[in-house]
């Protein structure tokens, strides 16, 4: 069953030192079968929370999430074996001193033979243009190089589902294009949050999240237009900011 389903999912967290809770996601039901799913929305709207439900990093307070038929709470080990997750901050993911070691670590389970593993790691690093930097400390890499490395380390193991949390925030034009083409060439399902609306427009389906709710679900161009309108409306409410471009002109 190659789909992701959310059934009446809400996520609430207790607010420190009080008995009240904050709702991060409210009553989300979805069946995701498309190959490229984009998740867009304002800062703090709930995109990362939605994505983190997919590998059990966040657990639903109500409802259930299933990835390819596995419940993300009850079968979390199998879910994590199937879902490759790329974090926004690459340093929260890269654990080895160098890129080469990190990619080899990712491959440890899938390729037992060390020479084969090393060769595969080199091929992946090469594909992302990272081979010349393979033995440099990850702390000496630029932000974009690290982001690309984090992506390479996850794609290397060919997970059944790829979840990307704002994967292009630090990438230059060339590497954003590399990411775009890489995503186009992948067989597996990709769920990606992004503030890069050009990238969002490439998706087969777009979800717009606003204050913990899915307020749009459908065609990418329509989703991006809806998000732009939500942003413009929110900015209209900021006092003293001036008018939207195009407004007030005759
Ligand atoms: N563990 C937590 N405890 C309290 N609040 C939390 C917790 N995790 C997330 N939040 C809050 O939930 C809201 C949604 O967070 P989330 O990270 O999902 O937003 P986002 O849409 O990914 O934002 P951004 O675009 O800024 O990355 C935010 O207001 C955030 O502060």
From TrEMBL:
<dbReference type="InterPro" id="IPR003439">
    <property type="entry name" value="ABC_transporter-like_ATP-bd"/>
</dbReference>
<protein>
    <submittedName>
        <fullName>Energy-coupling factor ABC transporter ATP-binding protein</fullName>
    </submittedName>
</protein>
<dbReference type="InterPro" id="IPR050095">
    <property type="entry name" value="ECF_ABC_transporter_ATP-bd"/>
</dbReference>
<keyword id="KW-0067">ATP-binding</keyword>
<keyword id="KW-0813">Transport</keyword>
<dbReference type="InterPro" id="IPR003593">
    <property type="entry name" value="AAA+_ATPase"/>
</dbReference>
<keyword id="KW-0547">Nucleotide-binding</keyword>
<dbReference type="InterPro" id="IPR017871">
    <property type="entry name" value="ABC_transporter-like_CS"/>
</dbReference>
<feature type="domain" description="ABC transporter">
    <location>
        <begin position="4"/>
        <end position="236"/>
    </location>
</feature>
<dbReference type="InterPro" id="IPR015856">
    <property type="entry name" value="ABC_transpr_CbiO/EcfA_su"/>
</dbReference>
<dbReference type="GO" id="GO:0005524">
    <property type="term" value="F:ATP binding"/>
</dbReference>
<comment type="similarity">
    <text>Belongs to the ABC transporter superfamily.</text>
</comment>
<dbReference type="Pfam" id="PF00005">
    <property type="entry name" value="ABC_tran"/>
</dbReference>
